[in-house]
Amino acid sequence: MTQTTSLPFRDEDVRGFGMCIGGPAPVLRPTTTEQIADAFAEVRRRGGSIALRGAGCSYGDAATNGKGHVLDLTSMNRMLDFDPATGVAIVEPGVTVRDLWRRAIGHGFWPKVVSGTMAVSMGGAAAMNIHGKNNFALGSFGECVRSFELLTPRGDLVQCSREQEAELFHAVIGGFGMLGCITRLVIETKRVHSGRLRVWGLVAKDLEHNLQILEDLRGKADYLVSWLDLHGKGAGLGRGLMHRADQMQPGEDPTGLRYLDPMLQDVPPKLFGVVPKGWLWPGMWGAVHLRQVGLVNWLKFQAGFREQRQSPYLQSHGAFHFLLDYVPRWHWMTKPGGLIQFQPFVPHKEGARVLRTLIEKCHQTRFVPYLGVLKRHRPDPFLMTHAVDGYSLAMDFAVPSGKSGREALWRHCRDMAEVVLGAGGRFYYAKDAVLLASSFAQVHGADVVDRFRALKSHLDPDRLLQTDLSRRLGV
Amino acid sequence: MSERNGTCIVVGASSGIGLAVARRLLQSGRKVAMLARREAELRAQVHTANDVLGKTQAHAYVHDAGDLDSAEPLFARIEQELGPVDEVHFVAGVMPTVAIDEFDLDKDRHQVQVNLLGCMAWGNAAAKRFLARKAGCFVGVSSVAQDRGRVGKPGYHASKAGMDTFLEALRNRLWRHGVQVTTIRPGFVETPMTQGLKLKGAISADKAAELILRARDRKATIAYVPWKWRLIMFVIRNIPSFVFRRLSI
Q1: What is the pLDDT of residues A198-254, one digit of tens each?
Q2: Interface of B with A (CB under 8 A)
């Protein structure tokens, strides 16, 4: 691609985390708000488009732009302030979850909402309105954002909070980078009374058992997440291992005081203290390509019984939350095809039926996810919310490297999406790669989509901000 | 384990090794006076520690280690408020960034003021009392930087070498009277002071604190933290000057 502007855009291969979507695009890494404004002005003048990108952790095409430019905000990563008394942080959008927890934990605070990897950026987390293992209790990431500063495509700086520009506040969070660039955020963290959590592993014999545990513990536990062995069939369909974690009360874990040292929170770099985890992904690649994923899942499920016997145990916050960081570059195991994640959100009442149907469809089509993660959710107040009072099941699919296989997987996912939409379900754009424009209004409702489009036309009349996702959905 | 059960003082307790030492002392049930210059950080850390412990064991005293004249009256005040002190950890230290061609007396003076004179102020205040009671323990956190004057930070090396020699003399005066003086020479430790230095193989502040308290318990005179630095510094100490002055370390 030729250089289209005088700003130092450089051609790079820009892909989603799943590696299967994206391609070359001119990328700029601004370090100041002024540079973002300059990029907006220049690209708009030339009639081009810009995709805003954080740490690039969206699985699909939410931060790629095959037909325009990309602003990568990872260099705007200064933590401007952290109040050690209240745990409130003022950050630039490129500050990561890792940066935030490392600062917070030393003072006895922990981010209210964290993802399964600590690599995600604050700007990206707000734009996609990410969630964690406590969505049913504390809500989504947007709920811990106190305020933010937005640079609109027209170059205006707008301060947004629940009191000021409330409509914009609720539309930008979860608005997948369509309305402007977040240039600064004020984030709340929460007090923790130990550097450790009390954790239980609970074996769930099937899908219904999993859902039952979620309902039983919903008001009691602080975190709930279930790993599902989606290769289980018949009586074992939807079996898995639920993890429950509770925070400590003051005085309950005095030893947890020294675990407030950030270095004691990090995910261990070696397996059994010997094998560097950076070496593990080739072994996992072998399991995927020799079709032994079912066996690996079965072994993990069996190991759950041992964990259940040893429960509860104490674990650092970092070790509990950041499972995706245990094995560096784990997603390379799906090379060369890459991976996609399909994460439907299903209302509580339809949960058992819909999720069972989806898993059965996976078995029929033989596209069985190598990983399944079940969580409980609650609605949130944001315009483009994906949250429901119900469940989500994240399913990771390795993408076949051939064209026909890839198309068949997309067909399978769209077929599952029909079932989900029919039941009043929703989707989450950090994970999506398959939805069609026709589903956009169905996910959010026609009036919500109209309001979002009206805001978009008002703030971005030239449609400067675009991504492959926004074009796919016909935003 | 230590047989002491009086009040502990940790100078430089709002972050890094000092905070980690204070936390481990608190965890073992001791009453700790935590001293630091930055009030908001210090008060927040004291609050956090008491919150985790579920009771008030940590006490905040705002103090700049470079404010030499206030050490003695503050020592007295702490004893009055919290009871007799039998253990002091001097962990305060400053290490400003110094360019390789920079010769800034203000920075040098500040390092001598805090690292060396601050240690003397607290060492003297403690020594007086410990000598009279014929008991007590003073732990001074020096540095491997004291072993040799290297090109990077002349002021830091000099201040730590002075501190180290002061601690040795103090030890020689007091040990015969039952008072312990332990010198700690940490190598690479990940703390706010060393943030951004990319120290390979750095240990956590908590690990450093564990080793420091272990050195205290075995009544060590000089302890390298971790132990391997004794070997590394043995080599570095024995590099002849005609070689050493050409090196960039």
Answers
A1: 999 999 999 999 999 999 999 999 999 999 999 999 999 999 999 999 999 999 999
A2: 15, 19-20, 23-24, 26-27, 40-41, 43-45, 47-49, 51-55, 190, 203-207, 209
pTM of the full structure: 0.93
Where helices occur in A175-235 by DSSP H, the ranges are 207-217
In chain B, the domains with their CATH numbers are: 7-244 (3.40.50.720)
**Residues 6+ away with beta carbon under 8 Å from A403:** none
Please give the mean pLDDT across all residues of chain A: 95
Q: Do residue A263 and residue B27 have CB atoms under 8 angstroms apart?
A: no
User: b/e map of B21-35 (b: 16 or more CB within 10 Å)?
Assistant: bbbbbbbeebbbbbb
Query: Residue A273: pLDDT band by 50, 70, 90 thresholds?
Result: confident
Cβ neighbours of residue A282 under 8 Å, at least 6 residues apart? A333
Give the closest residue to A226 by CA, choosing from A400, A376, A370. Answer: A376
Is the pLDDT at B131 greater than 90, yes or no? yes
Neighboring chain B residues of A263 at a CB cutoff of 8 Å: 190, 203-207
Domains of chain A by start residue, with CATH: 10-73+456-473 (3.30.43.10), 75-191 (3.30.465.10), 196-436 (3.30.70.2520)
d(CA A374, CA A395): 9
Scanning the structure block, which residue is given the tokens 């810009």?
A50
